[in-house]
Design goal:
Strand order of the largest sheet: 3-2-1-4-5-6-7
Oligomer: single chain
Radius of gyration: 17 Å
Helix content: 40-55%
Structural class: alpha/beta
Amino acid sequence: MTPVDVAGKVVVITGASRGLGAGMAAHLAAGGALLGLCARSEPSAPAGALSRAVDVTDAAALAAFTVEVADAFGPIDLWVGNAGVLEPIGPLRDADPAAFATNVTVNVAGVANGAIAYLRHRHAVGGGGALVNISSGAGGSPYRGWAAYCASKAAVDMLTRVIAAEETGSGTRVLAVAPGVVDTDMQALIRSTPADDFPDVERFNELRRTDSFNSPAWVAEQVVRVALGPDVPDDVVVRIPDEPRD
């Protein structure tokens, strides 16, 4: 499969200070993309990228960042709403309601804030571009101990479906993309969780033992393919295939 050329494409990635976001940024920068990167702590950016400390729960700050990126590089071709949190972990009956609310605020309202900023930008420049919200297989599968995360990712999927319906005719491709399992700090947190709080932890320990992960580079290539490639996916919610192994 021929990779999509990203040279000169303007790409924004939220949650880009570590993990999948940072890995995707490094891969796209190597391909010549012009990057706008943000996270709660300013990402360590590749040369030439615009990097800022922006919390996705701050809608005004995210809107201002969008304008700054567009002023620096031109119209934004691809927006990747990647910022998200996993915690709280454990049975819902034991959850701190404030922690649950924070999860939903970051994972759902933060994604919506990014979508609002990007869609307003694209409408101002005549439509087009692509919006990708990073989802998870957990949005369609109930994991014991992940009530907040599963619920918020299911909400991201439906939010994205609504946006796609609303943007029909605008020329903007809108997708929710589940990247598969990538070995990030979030995965380390999962593996360190006691089985009493997360009964499915052994599944993730086995993935680590067998090194059955998707790399950030693979995820970046697949995100670009579905977002900017010639073939439009059949569904708004897309699951990235497992990376081929030798």
